[in-house]
Amino acid sequence: MSHLKVLLKQLGPGLLFASMAIGTSHLVLSTKAGAQYGWVMVIPIILANVLKYPFFEFGIRYTTVTKKSLVEGYLNLGKKYLWIYAFVTIISTFTILAALYVVTAGLFMNLFKISSVSVSAVAMCLFIFIGAILIIGKYQFLENSLKAVISILFVALIVTTIVVLEKGPVPGAESYQRPEIFNEVGILFLIGLMGWMPTAVEASGWVSLWSMENMKTMKEKPTLKLALQEFNMGYFLTALLAIFFLIIGWMTLYGTGTELSGRAVVFADQVVSLFTVNIGKWAYILIAVAAFATMFSTCMTAHDAVSRVSIDVLEKLYPNAKSLKNKHAFAIAVIAMAVINWIVITVFGANMANLVALATFVSFVMAPLIGWMNLKTVMGKDIPKENHPKFGLQLLTYLGIVFLSLFALYYCWMVII
């Protein structure tokens, strides 16, 4: 019991990881996977979660043992590796936050029946509000507020999943011919689904920085075993909720021919309707608020992470830059991320499909390289041999790298031919 209390008190990076991951990849892509392809999509979802696990685990392992960020680990490998990670971070900066805020703005407009204002205007208000929360509340507030949000979402999803399973599949699902998976459209969807399932591999650097922040708030520094247990709880929860979203999409839309829209506001209405049709109209406001809270918390965690990792990367690339040592550097980074991504939203419009496609493609293609860098980092001289990952975890890492590399090569071949 005392061990459980310590674990719950330690709850931090794993919780933030779950909150950040349960966003577009779950709410959008998992639901869509079930709706279009049915139960078979549980296979790539489980595969992605299992094969990507070591990449994220290494972020916690490296920081807990060395008390340094994974970004510093890349620098120790050689500056060229840090530049590679910097490139991926730039792509994240210009795509991931924009995609998340567009979906969140759509949910907000749906919840309050707003139609007279543009999605970009609502997104701008969200950027200002969330930016202020992050600058004033900092890491401690972020961690504490997410405990309630994740609890509400988990309960809402369990109830909905049980209800849709009891009702069974919609009429016509048994005779429905699902679309081909291994053609151009199917492969592109798989890349989107697995590229952000549970999230982008470069987020291993984010988890590492959250681990550092978490250690600052604790009187006793966590052991490696305890830190990994906490992260594993969050990771398992992330994978489980992805399957819940898939089941809801499969049981309620598969075989109906309903197309989930690429427009944020329309999509938001469809998702909330999915839940309320199966639970009852009385639950509309509860579900709408839960869905919005989910995306809101995802925006907060991703905005916090991208700001932190941008500062960390720049500090390591330009160690003599005094402006990066400024106590207001985090606040400046938060504001900069908001401005950059609001411009991206304004240019791309409210069609989140373009933003998500770009971000997921880059994340997917770069995933094997980032995964290999993470393995090299935790197998380096910084970490004592007794804290190196065991043989089984190393083998799983190589399997993940090979699998994702073959998938990326197949995609590139398909595009060129």
Automatic annotation (TrEMBL):
This protein's name: Mn2+ and Fe2+ transporters of the NRAMP family
This protein's UniProt keywords: Membrane, Transmembrane, Transmembrane helix
Coarse class of the protein's main subcellular location: membrane
GO cellular component, one term: membrane
Topology within the bilayer: Multi-pass membrane protein
Organism expressing this protein natively: Flagellimonas pacifica
Compartments, record wording: Membrane
GO molecular function: metal ion transmembrane transporter activity
Pfam assignment, any one: Nramp
Ranges that cross the membrane: 37-60, 81-108, 114-136, 148-165, 185-212, 233-253, 282-307, 328-349, 355-375, 395-416
